[in-house]
Specification:
This protein has 459 residues and is mainly alpha-helical. It contains 16 helices and 15 strands. The strands form 6 sheets. A 3-stranded antiparallel β-sheet has the order 3-4-5. Strands 6-9-10 form a 3-stranded antiparallel β-sheet. The chain has a 3-stranded antiparallel β-sheet with strand order 13-14-15.
Length: 459
Amino acid sequence: MNRFASFLLLSVYVSFSFLYAQRPQPTERCFTSTAVEKCIEQTVPLLTKPRLAQVFAQCLPNTLDTTVKSAGENDSFVITGDIPALWLRDSSAQVWPYLRFLRSDARLAQFIRGLLRRQFRCILIDPYANAFNFDAAEMSPSWSKDETKMLPGVFERKYELNSLCYPLRLANGYYQATGDVSPFDALWLQTVRTVLHTMLEQQRYGSTEYMFLRVTDRMHDTQSNHGTGHPARPCGLIASSFRASDDGTIYPFLIPDNFMAINVLRTTASILSKVNGEKLLADSCLALANTVEKAIKKHATFIHPKYGTIYAFEVDGFGNKLLMDDANIPSLLSLPYIADVPLSDSIYQNTRRFVLSNDNPYFFSGKAGCGIGGPHVGKDFVWPMSTIMQAMTSNDKQEIRKCLNLLLNTDAGTGFMHEAYHKDDAANYTRTWFAWANTLFGELILKIIDDGRRHLLQE
């Protein structure tokens, strides 16, 4: 049998044997996109390694297969996976890889519009909440005893700056992908005003009534100083009580989230000007973005004795800095992916070398794998999300190959990405159903192909 015939047989084998290996049956899927299915069918034959093809075919559609709940034409609800609530961050990130398909799939575009509408309404319920119930009248089934202002519809009330940023990022992504202006109506304008007001309140740290206390045995699951957090001096940065991991900040000015805020404030200003004709509101967004940018340059860098000038992870405005990185996005590693930081930025490159080294207290290396983790699941647990982001922010072919091998060799044979795995034993992992990491893996494979590096997937 010649090579061409062997390749054709392999392609057929991969397409039919692996394509639906561990996906729900078509009748059991929450949502099916014709464009996503077509992409899978076209991409799988390009992945000559059956294992890679299987993981891609299962991971890319995982959000649509398992986490979507439609509540009407203009209302879509997306859970994170094994937790039945909508996180503003996770739901936005989970569907981000599907934006490329919207022009060829009207039903998928309608679904994303519905998610945006749901997110806008959630923010208007409480801009300090990070997660919401499907039923807007339901009190939280899990965190109703938290000492904070819990309202109906709110699942958890951990204030995270990224929770306000992600829906605005998704809104701009939707607009760029479709040109559709229908989501940018009065509800959108009210949401932007609420987000801007909240950011300005948190920029004037200490002038807000937000506080959060939880009875817990985990330090990072609550806030210090009777729920108000570590003291900080206003310096132009926007405070965040919790990180993208839902862990409490140590110093309130979380730098990755502030980078993300700059990006979304500027893209939001563009929509406000072009679509809404709201020049004053757009100017307010730009003014805040410019202030935050100047504050980052002044307060968020540190001259490391080994790596040179790097970005701090958190600061407090008094001159104190926390040097580390967390796997969750936004992170310092993810800055070129989530913000307007070029890959060539020298401070970013210095920071990247730091966070991917043993000098980062949350970088773990063991027999099974290596990568960035975080306090959310504890020491010695590597998050595949950080390995995906390492590959996404690299131009080094060897580094990308290494990341791909790590991801395929640490899934414990499940064909899915997990929240985290133990550095010495990939079978010791957390969360069997974590849709964000799954869809992000699919996005990585498509990015490698888009970048003209398909050969890396065949080696």
